Automatic annotation (TrEMBL):
Pfam families: Isochorismatase. This is Cysteine hydrolase. Keywords: Hydrolase. It comes from Pseudomonas kribbensis. InterPro entries: Isochorismatase-like_dom, Isochorismatase-like_hydrls, Isochorismatase-like_sf.
Amino acid sequence: MELQANAALIIIDQQKGILEPRLGRRNNPLAEQRILDLLDFWRRSGRPVTHVQHLSRSPDSVFWPEQSGVEFQDRFLPQDGEWLIQKQVPDAFCATGLEVKLRDAGIGQLVIVGVATNNSVESTARTAGNLGFETWVAEDACFTFDKADYFGTPRSAEEVHAMSLGNLHGEYATVVSSAEILAEVLY
């Protein structure tokens, strides 16, 4: 495991709407701080950063355009030179041009963080792996919410998160901690 000099940090859906209490109980309360730790390192080292913004097609969504929930949280506002990708489905590669931008920039390694682990993070990581990108998911820089499974059994956010990471690890991505990623370059 070695972090490349041009590895891209992909930050998914860190918008105001994700903080809505109606989304329910979540896991990983320090996820945003871990994302900020990685973002700070990426910015200081000059590595590429991509901010993914969800523009929902559903009027009852926290990410419905033209209301405050669709806006980035202040602490995650893109800076000059950072990419903004807008998506309408969970997968950040679907109809966004992200793959072309990454390939044109010669980027082959991605670190994916954000929300929700079992939705946009998993969907984007699966596609990244299928497209041949070396994909890492920072498990402590993602979170999700309590959710019932297909059969109606309530599952905790921790269970949903763990299952999603289990789906990804070793097949589509390598699941690591933010500390492991930073240790690759700091020591």
